[in-house]
Amino acid sequence: MISPARSWREFPQRYRLEAARCEGCEKVLYPPRVVCPDCGGCTFETTPLPREGKVVTFTVVRVPPAGYTEQSPLPIALVELTNGVKVMMQVGDLADPEELEIGMPVRLEFRRVAWDGEAGLIFYGHKAVKG
Amino acid sequence: MRDVAVVGIGMIDFGELWEKSLRTMWAEAALAALTDAGVDSVDMVTIGCMSPGLFAGQEHLASLLADELGMAGVPAARVESACASGGLALRMAFAEVAGGLSDTVLVTGVEKMTDVDGADATFALGTAADQEWEGFHGITFPGLYAMLAQVHMQRHGTTSEQLAAVAVKNHANGLLNPHAQYHLKVSVEDVLASTMVADPLHLLDCSPVTDGAAALVITTVEQARELGSERPMVKITGSGLATDTMALANRNDLSQLDGVRLAAERAYAMAGRKPEELHVVEVHDCFTIAEIMTTEAIGLFDPGFGASAVDKGLTSLHGKIPVNPSGGLKSKGHPVGATGVAQVAEIATQLWGEAGQRQVEGATIGLAQNMGGSGGSSTVHILEVAS
Predict the structure, then answer these.
(1) Is the peptide bond before B200 cis (omega within 30 degrees of 0)?
(2) Is the CB of B126 inside 8 Å of chain A's CB atoms?
(3) How far apart are alpha carbons B347 and B330 in whole angstroms?
(4) Which of A64, A104, B140, B203 would you label with B357, given CA atoms 20 to 30 Å apart?
């Protein structure tokens, strides 16, 4: 259900982890927004996200949606990066999904996230691996 | 603002209703409510429905459904706020009547979920989450609530057995509700032995996919008196609506539902009531953890005490504050757009004293809480028997 245009539009954030730093209050927004939710500022500079963080919460999806069924069981975590930004992502390279726990240190690696049967697109992005 | 009364309800039996279309289910519930209220025309129709486009390939319900009931010409609006669409339909109707734009409004909710297969239904429900920044990674709704559950368990020591106790209680209540999808007694062991869907949530921690419709008729107190019903007058004294961040990534504290808390605070303020004054409550138990977190958010229990409250039986049918006497979404079923309307129908039934075997004795003040997505939107309505 992800169109080629949408996939292309998201490349800067997916591929290069580009975030926006508010010039008014320094808050880092990922994904970037038109308006800073904290100070209302509308001017930003592009900044890359740090690549280290820790697991804030997680689950293992055993009944994934269409397009992800080959990846079951699918571990997914909410990761808080070293600058405080939280990002949801898949967790890769786990020998056993039971290893996942709150507080686990992780680093971000560029990986294939999903592949879409209907449109033939392959989606890349970042996954968390044990840091 | 004008006072608003509930004068009729209409429910159909929830379930996998292969033989019934969206419009048929809706018309049956709407007609039942109009008949129950004893009115044959209304000034407005509101329709809560999350995603007829994805579930049934149909949009433009305002025209379709008003026409279906032979009411073409009446003002009608479909409103959407994911699984809180039904609560929103009531909120909009309440504003119409309280604000004086309409005297009598038919409030409805409907969802036809079984015309698509499980994967398509999962996708359709998933659109209630942030598709670009959550759904992209393969997270599902059970997955998002599982993430909230992990935090609640770590912060407060909530256990899988306590989550299961919510399912046990609500299925026990559902046995007493003829409209419920599942008349099924379950034990803690059954829940823990059911398939893991998203750790730590098992299949029996989740509400089902359901077809269903529900309806209410609301009107001014003056019009309600003219109808001459022998029932006690039930008024909607509080209506709260609030949002929270869409994505879990943008929440400060994942152990609580701030949108629900805000909606409840607004409803309590309007009604001039406090949580401890309530006699009966329906909350949005789309997952067992959701009942625990919503009962905390509406102030029935302090943060972290929602789980032990279930353990102690405080929320059981004959407990201190019965929660989900209807069986909740868990047992009654969760046709998403209909849910918020069905919750209020249950509270009205309880306050009229017509709930049969699941009646909460002497209930005169009740609350219904409906929630969209992973708590990104919520409505809270307080109903009271007029003194």
Answers:
(1) yes
(2) yes
(3) 17
(4) B203
Contact B138 A57 (CB under 8 A): no
- Beta strands B212-220; B105-111: pairing state: antiparallel
Provide the pLDDT for residue A2.
84
Question: Which among B122, B151, B249 has CB closest to A65?
Answer: B122
The catalytic site residues of B sit at 83, 334
Residue A28 domain boundaries: 4-130
Q: Are residues B272 and B358 in the same domain?
A: yes
Q: What chain A residue is nearest to B145 in terms of C-alpha separation? A: A59
What is the number of domains present in chain B?
2
Together in a domain, B218 and B69 = yes
Does B138 sit within 8 Å of A90, measured CB to CB?
yes
A74 contacts in chain B (CB < 8 Å): 138
Q: Residues 174 to 213 of B: which have CB under 8 A from any A CB?
A: 195-199, 201
Closest approach of chain B CAs to the CA of A42, in angstroms? 19
Are B34 and B146 part of one and the same domain?
no
Structure tokens given for B359? 């009646």
Confidence of residue B361 (pLDDT cuts 50, 70, 90): very high
Nearest to A102 among B122, B154, B247 (CB): B154
Confirm if B87 and B338 have CB atoms less than 8 A apart.
no
Q: How far is A94 from chain B (nearest CA, A)?
A: 15
Would you call A87 an interface residue with chain B, using a CB distance cutoff of 8 Å?
Answer: yes
| B40 and B65 both lie in a single domain | yes
Q: Mean pLDDT of all residues in chain B?
A: 97
Domain final residue pick, B227, B260, B292: B227
Closest chain B C-alpha to A34 CA, distance in angstroms:
16
**Cα–Cα distance for residue pair B254/B154, rounded to 1 Å:** 11
Dihedral sign (CA B172, B176, B178, B179): negative
Amino acid at B99: G
Binning chain A into helix, strand and coil, the percentages to the nearest 5 are: 15, 45, 40
Q: Any idea what the CATH number is for the domain that residue B223 is in?
A: 3.40.47.10
- Partner-chain contact B134 A1, CB within 8 Å: no
pLDDT, tens only, B101-136: 999 999 999 999 999 998 889 889 999 999 999 999
Nearest to B140 among A61, A97, A123 (CB): A61
Whether the model clears a pTM of 0.95, i.e. scores above it, the answer is: yes
* DSSP category for residue A40: -
Q: Does B138 touch chain A (CB under 8 A)?
A: yes
Contact criterion met (CB < 8 Å) for A102 and B197: no
Residues in chain A: 131
